[in-house]
Amino acid sequence: MAMRELVSGGAACAVPGSSSSNPLGSLANALIGSSSKTQERLREIPTATATTSDGSLYTGAEEPLAGLPGSELEHTLHSNAQGSEFLQGFRSVDQSRFSDAWDEIQRPQIPHYRGRDGLTNFPLEQPRLNQDFDGPPQRVLSNFLHSFLHSGHGSVPFHPTSLPVLGLSEGDKQCIRDRSSIMARHLFADKSEDFIHAQVNALLTSLDIDNDIRARGPMPGRFPELEEYWNESQGMRPGPHGPDAWVSEFSQQRVHHDDPNTWVQSFERQHGANGWASEFEHEQSQLASIDQLRGSNIPNLAAMEQTRMLAHTLAQNNDPKFQNSKFFQFVSKMSRGEITIEDNQFKPAALSAPGDWATEYEQQYNGGQSWADQFVNEKLSHGPHGWANEFAAEREQHGLVEDEWVNEFSKLNVNDWSEEFERQVADGTLESSADNWANAYDEYLNEQVALKQKSASGVYVFSDLNPYVGHPNPLKEGQELFRKGLLSEAVLALEAEVLKNPDNAEGWRLLGIAHAENDDDQQAIAAMMRAQEVDPTNLEVLLALGVSHTNELEQAAALKYLYSWLRHHPKYGSIAPQDQPENLYYADVVRLFNDAAKLSPDDADVHIVLGVMYNLSREYDKAIEAFQTALKLKPRDYSLWNKLGATQANSIQSADAIFAYQQALDLKPNYVRAWANMGISYANQGMYEESIRYYVRALAMNPKADNAWQYLRISLSCASRNDMLEACDSRNLDILQKEFPL
Amino acid sequence: MPVFKTSFNGYSVKFSPFYENQLAVATAQNFGILGNGRLHVLQLGPVITERAAFDTAEGVYDLCWSESHDSLIVAAVADGSLKIYDLSLPPASNPIRSLHEHARECHGVDFNTVRKDSFLSASWDDTVKLWTVDRPASVKTFKEHAYCVYSAAWNPRHADVFASASGDCTTRIWDVREPGSTMILPAHEFEILACDWNKYDDCIIATASVDKSIKVWDVRNYRVPVAVLNGHGYAVRKVKFSPHRGSVIASCSYDMTMCLWDYMVEDALIGR
């Protein structure tokens, strides 16, 4: 039985004529050839190939060769129940007996395979059968590969085994090498690269495959580009020879480029603008790894100042492009300890250099605008790539400042510097200066984290330089400005008001609404939360918070506020259970609101909340219905028209949405959010030219709407108006308005 | 339950968009590491019958049905080729086309459900290619990923938008009218093996990763995932949104299980 299955399984694997490179289990055939039941089995083969869809024929192909080391160990471990159980379920006794027998031939030293009956003496060659099926003995190979894969499920190291010569072609070997490597990385993702290598190597050596041939390498780190730059920069310097080599290389460069400016340029040329940034990151990452090695604490003001500035800018930059950038990820990953650099040999020595350098530099540079300042300024205005370029450009423009810097640096005289460096190495200050950097870096990370938490947890961020501070009645001024639709101005006036009277719930509420209409939900939430602190039961505030959280797709928070709206409502408070449940479930809250709507079908607010909630669950049809009901009761509510429009747009009814937005704009021509939404709807319909006009209009009213700038950029590129991208990037509204009048 | 056992290891299975009882299965010998492949077309009923089977010299990693012709199937083959089979023709005249442009293994294909003449292929040569049935060469190549691209999926509503999942730990959103990707979603810390769009909300995308998790994203707010679904014991190999319910996701993993999820509810794992 065992042999029959095997043979037929092997035969089924091979389809005569389908592929010459892909043969049958010729080993199995070979085995049969000399076994006592040869004739019977040979007769099986034609049948097997003729009826390939017969399920019973296939059992063999699925069975792992239990006798091979990887899977054999797995039997005893059972460490991953699901996986191995499933796989073991496939194994029939017969099959493993065969495999055991096979293994016994190959590895007679494994004791407990002995004593199985029957199949102990088959020769490996059977030319008579091989004439039909050429190529590697698939049976062995297949079992071997199976056990390789299953070794992953028990976390068992996979041992090399000697296998017969399989006659694999170079192409086959390449395939096995590449595919098993890639698959191993999927299976062993939580293990080290070394483990993966060991597993794959064990397989490859067993199969007599040379692992030296260039295989598909591992993913080149999390940041392939960085790695490249790193390699480049490593290549530029003569390898890991420690401080002396670095210094001498550096002085060589100075000899080559006497002019300090060319030095800067050549550095840029060698690394590209981004290279500079990545170089910087690498040094930082090295610092992080040093940090892990050492931990004492000596303050270095200069370095701290610099990193603090960097942290500040990093946290302030809300440009999603930047947030999304490799640099930002890199830094944040580093902060979570996810990236460590293995090669510590070279950098620690060189590292003290920047530390030292920074100190010296800071000391000499007290008068002028500091490097960090400049870094900050430029960082603020642009994303990382732009920043690097900009930095390069600015360097040349601000020749004066830069020359000064480079001169200062060169005044240090390389020889002195290296001497000093050696001295420091001698008396051990090297360590401490590295520590300084490490500590400073730590501090920078902490601060970055703190700042991030701050903005995420809804702390209101006030504008700098508010002309309305000191205004006699900023609230009235703010209300007036808000009514006129000058939202950005209104925001400033209202900020002045809440600075003056932090307990003015109305001031905070209006500020929140102004931000919401200005398309800044984060600030809107922050302001509304302050309003709620002052007046926890203000219904309008609770509703606004629910809407803003819905816009930010934060379901739990939105539910919380909408629920408390209901609870604090004089009419519906009784519907809601007195003790607020720990977890609010969407369905429960919707049910409550539906009850409320039945209770008083003429209350537009309940329908509005229902509409918002259906937006949360993306049941747009119901949401549209709810808003339309509310609009019948409150036809002059411009924000309600906007909500309807947004919902229609979300449910791919962009044409209807435009009508709704138009209603909102007729009621309130200065409604920035509706203008921007109108643009989005046109863009969704593929009418990019139209959408551009609306975005430009919205931006003319509120140039600070970062989202709208991004939408505009997308529409410009979709409309193939790349000529206007520059105006968009430089936020030149004059040009844009001239080009796209509405 | 009727069972049909394939001779090789299954790699992909898709229902016909035209006949509810027709199914195509892509298989590869030795888990696709080496050996033949075979494409089965099965007829469901009280018993499963095989309507057709096509053999290939290399494993078949993925397949998709044509959205415009009920008899056309595109197969992604381990040798990097895409083969188009026509069920209405005898096996001898199949495949009707073999498109060989990818330099390495082809790991995913997806047919556009809106513009029904085009399809995508994702390959280990780090690229995604756009094809149309009537053209012998690819229309466009999207090369931005830094490592193998494992799958590419069309947006169910927008004919020009698709997402790709790659081993470089990113999912990218593309618009075929644009030269580069329109959005880079650093969705996981580990390789991403699959992605799929929600069939009811064209902004929602799910990604499956070697980190054993599935994440659901809203592309309008891609800084935080809408949901993170943990529960698989090994790398998650494929992820699909239900065509019947917007919040239901099915996934399968190297842990040899498949899971059903509802990402909208508290206990997202609703079946295994």
From TrEMBL, chain A:
InterPro entries, alphabetized: PEX5/PEX5L, TPR-like_helical_dom_sf, TPR_rpt
TPR repeats: 505-538, 604-637, 638-671, 672-705
Swiss-Prot/TrEMBL GO biological process terms: protein import into peroxisome matrix, docking
Pfam families on file: TPR_1, TPR_16
Gene Ontology CC terms: cytosol; peroxisomal membrane
Localization annotation: Cytoplasm; Peroxisome
Any one Gene Ontology molecular-function term assigned to this protein's record: peroxisome matrix targeting signal-1 binding
Region of interest (Disordered), residue spans: 35-71
Keyword Metal-binding belongs to the record: no
Entry-linked PROSITE patterns: TPR, TPR_REGION
UniProt name for this protein: TPR repeat-containing protein
TrEMBL record, chain B:
Record keyword Cytoplasm present: yes
Sorted UniProt keywords: Cytoplasm, Peroxisome, Protein transport, Receptor, Repeat, Transport, WD repeat
Compartment(s) where it occurs, according to its Swiss-Prot or TrEMBL record: Cytoplasm, Cytosol; Peroxisome matrix
Start and end residues of each EIPR1-like beta-propeller domain: 147-261
Gene3D superfamilies, per the entry: YVTN repeat-like/Quinoprotein amine dehydrogenase
GO biological processes: protein import into peroxisome matrix
Principal location: cytoplasm
InterPro entries according to UniProt: Beta-prop_EIPR1-like, PEX7, WD40/YVTN_repeat-like_dom_sf, WD40_PAC1, WD40_repeat_CS, WD40_repeat_dom_sf, WD40_rpt
Cytoplasm keyword on record: yes
CC per GO annotation: cytosol; peroxisomal matrix
GO terms for MF: peroxisome matrix targeting signal-2 binding
Source organism superkingdom: Eukaryota
WD repeats: 99-141, 142-184, 185-227, 229-262
Family, per entry: Belongs to the WD repeat peroxin-7 family.
PANTHER family: PEROXISOMAL TARGETING SIGNAL 2 RECEPTOR
Protein name: Peroxin-7
Protein source organism: Handroanthus impetiginosus
Taxonomic lineage: Eukaryota, Viridiplantae, Streptophyta, Embryophyta, Tracheophyta
